[in-house]
Amino acid sequence: MQQRTFFNMKGYFFFIYFGLGGLFPLLTVYLQDDVGLSGAQIGVITSIGPVVMILIQPVWGMFSDYTKRPKLLLTVASIGAGLSGLTYVFAEDYFLFVTIAALLAVFQSAVIPLSDSIAMNYVRRHGGDYGKIRMWGAVGFAVAVWIMGNLSDLFGLQVIFYGFAIVLFISAFFSTGMPNETATAKVDLKGGMRRLVKVDGFMLFLFITFLVYGPIMANNFYFGVLIQFVGGSLAGVGFAFLLAAGSEVPFMRWAGAWIYRRGILTILFAAALISGLRWIFYAAGPDPVWIYVTTIMQGFSIGLFVPAALQYVSEISPKEVRATAVSIYAAVGNGVGAFFFSMSAGLLIDWFSILAVYLFYGVCTLSGAFLLFVLVRKQPHIVRKPGT
Fold it and tell me: Where are the transmembrane segments (predicted)?
């Protein structure tokens, strides 16, 4: 029974991230090349989602707390996201694109937090490794961009919307076999925030998350634009994402052991430093071959930063407000950070070029790495031994 549950959770993560990987990295290319929108317009479309998620995600959380049926909500959200993404096929007007992006975000704001919460609570109660479940999302994302990039070369970019809908419906099937795990702690943003601002390192880490994780999220939209700018093809975009997202898999698998040996903050610092150096390298406009070669840096940065950041927030937060802390952390990284860096990217493309976008990302991420180094010096006990 437990093996079947793990299989369904892994299957859900694989297909939900397959859908996200097949759509968002190529959506920006579609809006720029096929529709002919400006950088600023694309910036609005790519940044409207994070804003909606900040507003709607707590509503899904309240529904989950009230109904005690997160699995059902996850199924509904997966189907709703698939149908919303499919409507891109019929859109031609800029404002309709914005509306669809907002509608898709309403459902998307539930699928990742609910699935993460279900998986985290299940392994906490029954044993297991969240990283080994979550890595199947990285596998799905990597395979998706490669497959959809090649299909787009053959049939046109609109194929990404049909592919997105199909795999989201498949993910909904897997969600029905997931456990109906609910968090034991309630999210109290107002009361919890009053306590969390007094937690040593929490507010600083939120700012670091904004600087480091925001560019990581925005890169999913603009990496394809960079590949094409330096002379790559749509198939090349898919190949680059296959290497980049695929490299996350082994690092997510090893993350738990590395965090235990080296300490959470040390791993976070190393991940942020590598990520920042990667963006600076891309700002130089290298040949596509060198971008493909260096994509393994994504595995080291994202594959380690995501599980380590979540663990750090859980470690430093009082148990009673841990759910609130994780919710705020997710809102800053996935919401505020993704919005700011997606919106700014569109403007920088109009004013300069995609290379300026990655220079900006690099400077911000390296600033976050420096602040993590400061945090390492302030909290040596967390560096030495997680969980103390």
Answer: 12-31, 37-60, 72-88, 94-112, 133-149, 155-175, 196-216, 222-243, 264-284, 290-313, 325-349, 355-376
The pLDDT confidence band at residue 60, using thresholds 50, 70 and 90, is confident
Among residues 208, 307, 326, the alpha carbon closest in space to that of 259 is found at 307
**The residue type at 161:** F
CB-based burial, 105-139: b 16+ in 10 Å, e otherwise: bbbbbbbbbbbbbbbbbbbeeeebebbbbbbbbbb
- Would you state the structure tokens that stand for residue 272, as one six-digit string? 């942020």
- Supply 105's token pair: 């975000």
Q: What predicted TM-score, i.e. pTM, was given to this entire model?
A: 0.77
CA 189, CA 324: separation in Å to the nearest integer?
Answer: 6
Residue pair 243/278 in contact (Cβ under 8 Å)? The answer is no
Q: Where are the domains of the chain?
A: 2-174+185-384
Show the beta-strand stretches assigned E in the chain: none
pLDDT in tens, 190-235: 666 677 777 788 889 999 999 999 998 888 888 888 988 988 777 7
Query: Does domain 2-174+185-384 correspond to CATH entry 1.20.1250.20?
Result: yes
Residue given tokens 């406009």 in the structure block:
285
